[in-house]
Amino acid sequence: MTVAEFVDLRSDTVTRPTAGMREAMASAEVGDDVYGEDPTVAALEAEVAALFGHEAALFAPSGSMANQIALQLVVPPGDELLCDADAHVVTYEIGAAAAYGGISSRTWPAVGAEIDPEVVAGMVRPDGYFAVPTRAIAVEQTHNRGGGGVIPLATLRELRRVADGHGLALHCDGARIWHAHVADRVPLAEYGALFDTLGVCLSKGLGAPVGSLVVGSAEKIARARFVRKRMGGGMRQVGILAAAGRYALANHVERLAEDHAKAARLAEAVAPYGVLATAVRTNLVPLDLTKHALDAPALAAAARERGLLISVLGPRTARLVTHMDVTEAQVDRAAETLTALLRA
Ligand SMILES: Cc1ncc(COP(=O)(O)O)c(C=O)c1O
C-alpha cells in the first residue's frame, strides 16, 4: 500500500495542491523576493496584513520560522517568554527560541485553549536586576496539543489587558487561526487587533504546499525581514508559492467548516469508547487512551494495517486530523475502522 492509498488522518499538512491551485502557481508573476521584487509575494503580504488589520506581513518558509522570527522581535536575548507547557513554540520547534533567540521560556500548566488569564498574570516577573524579566506572552489559536480548542475572545481580551498592564507583547501562534475564525465567527481583524505579532500558516488546513506569514506593525516587519534573512529564510522567485497561498485564502477558508463537521463525526464515533480527550471544536480529534486496553502506538499500528493513518502524540495520546484531502466516504471508513478497533 502506498501512502496515497491510506486514509491519512495524521495531519492537515498532508494535503496536495488542487488543480486550481497548481494553475495559479504556474501562472504566477515572480521576481527575486530578497531584492523585494516579487509582486505575488508583495500582494500576499499586503493581503494578509489587511485581513488581520495590521500594517505589514512577511512571507516565511514555515510556521516554525514565522513564530521564531516573531518571538525574536518581542523578546530580547536572555529575557522571558510565557506560554503554556504544550505550546508548539516550546514543544515542536526544537528549542529554537533558546537556540536562535537566546530566549528564556517559562510555561503555565498545559490547559489547551482553557487559559486562566489570572494564572498568567501571576507569573509575570517585573523588570529589574534580580530576576529574568518577562517580555511577552504567546498563545496558540487553535491549540494543537489542546485538541484544536479555540481560545474564547473574552480570554484573549483579558490576556491583552494583562499584557498591557505589564508592558508585555502578546504573540499568537495562529497556524490554525482560520479554523478559530470559522468555528467562532470572530473576524480575523478582531483577532489581529489583540496581538502585537501573529504567525499564520497557509499549509495547515488551507491546502497550500508551503508558507506562513509573520504579521505586525511596519516597524516590526522591517526588522522581521532582517531576522528572516539571518535565519536563512530569504527566498527568491517564491511568488510561485505565494500564489498558492493567495489561492488558498480565496478558496479554502470557508470550506474549513466541512473539516470541522468531519471531525465532529469521527468524535461521535469514538466517544462511546471513552477515548475522546476533549470536546471537538475544529478539525482535530484528540484521543486519550489512558483507560483503554490499546495504547496509542498499538492503536496506530492496528489502524495502519487496516489502511488508516493516525498520529501518536504520546504513549496514551493520539490524534485524528481532518482536512481537504479526506473525503466523506473516507471519514466513514475511518469511523468504522476505529470503532471496530476500540470495541475489540
Ligand atoms: C500550532 C502550530 N504552530 C506552528 C506549527 C509549525 O508549522 P511548520 O510545520 O510549518 O513549521 C504547527 C505545525 O503543525 C502547528 O501545529
Can you walk me through this structure?
The protein is of the alpha/beta class and 344 residues long. β5, α7 (153-166) and β6 (169-174) form a beta-alpha-beta unit. It has helices at residues 19-26, 39-51, 63-74, 88-91, 96-101, 117-123, 153-166, 177-184, 188-194, 218-230, 239-251, 256-270, 296-305, 328-343, and strands at residues 7-8, 56-60, 80-84, 104-108, 134-140, 169-174, 197-201, 212-216, 284-288, 308-309, 311-314, 317-321. The structure holds pyridoxal-5'-phosphate. Pyridoxal-5'-phosphate (PLP) binds next to α3.
Task: Estimate the strand proportion.
Answer: 15-25%
Average pLDDT works out at 97
The structure class reads alpha/beta
Radius of gyration: 20 Å
| Biggest β-sheet strands, sense, barrel | 7 strands, mixed
Q: If strands are numbered along the chain, what order do they take across the biggest sheet?
A: 2-8-7-6-5-3-4
- Terminal Cα span: 25 Å
Q: Which ligands appear in the coordinates? A: pyridoxal-5'-phosphate
- Strands, total number: 12
- Secondary-structure element order, as H and E? EHHEHEHHEHEHEHHEEHHHEHEEEH
Given as residue ranges, the uncertain stretches (5+ residues, pLDDT < 50) are none
| Global geometry | globular
How much helicity do the residues have? 40-55%
Contiguous helical run count: 14
